[in-house]
Design a protein that fits this description.
19 helices, binds iron/sulfur cluster, mainly alpha, two-stranded parallel sheet, 54% helix
Length: 325
């Protein structure tokens, strides 16, 4: 009997390696394709390696004992992506995802939008379930005995009533401003590791609940500092020179001695709240709101200020208060 999870683990298509079920022993075996070895070995060395390899010999002498794993044509990841898009409740995100999977570069665009819309975990969960289905159907079709050890569906945690934290959150953020600052200050008295352990869970909970594309406040209210490498990345992405980037999109902040975007909202923020240079966005944008970085307690000024316009930060601080007070 073969565990379904083992088949799923091996279903990722890896160039140069083929996976098989060896029927008589019901085991999974892998085989390096000759073409993948050609870069490193001479023809004579490959022949020698194949001679000593039981899988190579088995494939040659008793091919009927070996069943090749589902190929990319059986897995059809594009169809899985399309099915996933149709499960997304937010119509704007759904449309953006559906249009991202058309044409070349689909996987990259799809992953970027998942990332922006905080849908990445949901996608991988959906994809895993689809892989298990394909693996089970494949076993049935080929009379392979298998143990169905797919993980039990995750129980969705009871969601906090939205009114509890999000209702009137901007007003409450103003109202709780002093209290939040005192609370963030008090975290310095706790063990730093303990604070970081707790906050990472709360951060993950927050990004699951909040869709950044319905907000975009950080891109509308803040000007990130850009390092030289950020400017170079944007220039490469836009296929223009770094001078052109500076001329068209940046100003130099004399006080901070750094470059920043020349407009608010950011010149790269689209009307749909998506970042048009997402893959090349500056490090400061990638890291924002920094609630999942270690040393949470040491950034009280920053987190306090961010509670006033970033619902993720506000949520994190409110939940941290529940936990630590
Ligand atoms: S570069 Fe993108 S992520 Fe950064 S502020 Fe502009 S729109 Fe927002
Ligand atoms: S302000 Fe916070 S919640 Fe809003 S888009 Fe930025 S990170 Fe997301």
């Amino acid at each position: 009997m073969i565990q379904l999870s083992k088949i799923v683990q091996e279903m990722e298509i890896i160039e140069g390696i083929s996976m098989y079920v060896h029927r008589p022993s019901s085991t999974l075996v892998q085989h390096f394709e000759e073409a993948a070895l050609e870069d490193q070995f001479t023809a004579e060395e490959i022949a020698e390696l194949e001679k000593d390899n039981p899988v190579s010999q088995g494939l040659k002498n008793a091919p009927e004992d070996y069943l090749a794993f589902p190929s990319k044509y059986d897995i059809h990841e594009y169809r899985i992506m399309e099915n996933f898009c149709n499960t997304v409740a937010n119509d704007r995100v759904k449309e953006a995802l559906l249009s991202s999977i058309r044409g070349s570069g689909a996987f990259r665009r799809f992953r970027n939008i998942l990332d922006q819309a905080n849908q990445t975990d949901k996608w991988y969960h959906f994809r895993d379930r689809a892989f298990y289905e394909i693996a089970a159907e494949w076993c049935i079709e080929h009379d392979i005995l298998y143990t169905d050890d797919r993980p039990a569906p995750k129980r969705t945690k009871k969601k906090l009533p939205p009114q509890k934290i999000f209702k009137d959150w901007t007003l409450n953020a103003q109202k709780n401003s002093d209290q939040n600052f005192d609370f963030l200050t008090s975290l310095k008295l706790k063990t730093e590791d303990r604070v970081d352990q707790v906050v990472i869970h709360i951060h993950n909970e927050a990004v699951e609940k909040i869709d950044c594309t319905t907000c975009g406040n950080c891109c509308k209210k803040m000007k990130p500092e850009l390092e030289a490498v950020d400017i170079k990345n944007i220039a490469d992405f836009l296929k223009i020179s770094t001078n052109q980037v500076q001329q068209d999109y940046l100003v130099f902040n004399e006080k901070e001695k750094s470059h920043e975007f020349n407009t608010l909202p950011c010149p790269f923020l689209g009307t749909d709240n998506f970042c048009s240079i997402y893959e090349a966005r500056p490090a400061a944008c990638r890291d924002f709101p920094n609630t999942d970085e270690s040393g949470f307690a040491s950034r009280r000024f920053m987190h306090h200020d961010n509670t006033l316009f970033c619902p993720i930060t506000y949520y994190v601080v409110e939940r941290m208060k529940e936990h630590f007070q």
